[in-house]
Amino acid sequence: MRFLTGVMLVLVSTVTGAVVEARERPAGPPETLATQRPVSGEEAVESAFPIDFVGVYYDGEVTGGAVRFRHDGRWGTWVDLEEDGVEVDGRWASALAPGADADAYQVRVPRGARSARAVAINTTDGPEATAATTSTVCTDATSIVIRCEWGADESLMTWGPPQYFPAQKLTVHHTGTVNGATDPAATMRAIYRYQAVDRGFGDIGYHYLIDEAGLIYEGRHSGDDGDPAHDAAGNVVTAAHVGGFNSGNVGIALIGTLTSVDPQPGARSSLEQLLKQLSTRHKIDPRGSSVYVNPVNGTMRAVANISGHRDWAATECPGGNLYALLPAIRDAAAGTISPPPPPPPPTTTPTDTTPPVITAVAASTTSNSATVSWTTDEMSTGSVEDRRTKTNPWTSTSDGPLTRGHSFMIGGLTSRTSYQYRVTSKDEPGYSSTSAIFSFKTR
Ligand SMILES: [Zn+2]
């Protein structure tokens, strides 16, 4: 039996500056399970583990394909494969298709596809990652979910040495993965495995990724100076998101498929803020256009300073809906969004219409309890959900009182056991935010 105690501790903090957290690396995340193999002729491929994702890739000038999954002995319908947000000339790669714990899959590729391969990936049920492959302390002074926080297995990073160049362009992508994913960190680990190992880039292709709630994730490794995407001199690490135009080009991907739906408001807002911050830092005019010059080989291309992937290459990325929003997103990044209508007469207090922003989520543990803390940028309630694995239902604390510093103790836990958790805060008008999923391990 489990019991939960909602102990309210108001964190003494009046400083809104950077909070440096030094915490033990959260227990888990699980090791990534993956099996890659050639595929042909709609062969049924059994999986030794529940399938979270399947990716398909092949050589040739053709595109597309389809996948279907088997659950409990029954085959589902064929689903067209989306395109990965990172494409390379002469090869085609699907985005990761969601398997929902399937036990087998079948793949169809078009005539003309050569050397087709598929990979089944599970980033949620593997054994706990060993300390040998990850750093033991995860120190983060940023609001960005850095690699050790989302659980990057650094042994999969095989590229190098890194090169750094001044940033010239900011390029927007989508990942082509499923919308509404409930565990963005698990999606991050899957994209990482797929792009680093199966697609052969040695690392995740993008510099930054943004989930639907607006949390920003560190993508490609850029050194250990705590400044994602940059070296100590402020130059940008060369990643792998636009073939032929990667050096000095920052890749930002929204997690999801934005061909026929708009980005979620939190994701769009974070994209605009990140573009604004990067364009200010690198003195890039968000609404300007200029000739990009590849600092390695001199290749040139005239392109908008804030571009979509399709401005560089023949690709659907970043999705029609997101691409159509780029002019407005550039305006927001430039800080020149049309001024809001004049405020109504000041008879009421200003209306709060934005959800709280959750930062500094952390957990400390004893053998049978965990204390979870976080901060919000406005007064809000807080609650914590936890579960043993993703197949267990969430158990939730009740809401605490309105505050900016939140802390809850969860009791009745089993010792030396990993739990997943996430936190939710709701402001007075009722707007709420939920964090990414983190994990801790009891002692
Ligand atoms: Zn792309």
Question: What is the secondary structure topology, with strand pairs?
Answer:
Blueprint: E1 21-24, E2 33-38, E3 45-59, E4 66-71, E5 74-75, E6 79-80, E7 91-93, E8 97-108, E9 114-122, E10 137-140, H1 147-150, E11 164-165, E12 169-174, H2 184-198, E13 208-210, E14 216-218, E15 236-237, E16 249-254, H3 265-281, E17 289-293, E18 300-304, E19 306-308, H4 320-334, E20 358-365, E21 370-387, E22 395-396, E23 403-410, E24 418-427, E25 432-434, E26 438-441
Parallel strand pairs: 12-16, 12-19, 13-16
Antiparallel strand pairs: 1-10, 2-9, 3-7, 3-8, 3-9, 4-5, 4-6, 4-8, 11-15, 13-14, 17-18, 20-21, 21-22, 21-23, 21-24, 24-25, 24-26
Helix pairs in contact: 3-4
Bound molecules: zinc ion (ZN).
Descriptive key words:
globular; Jelly Rolls; 3 domains; 443 residues; disordered N terminus; Immunoglobulin-like; 7-stranded antiparallel sheet; 8-stranded antiparallel sheet; Lysozyme-like; mainly beta; binds zinc ion; 4 helices
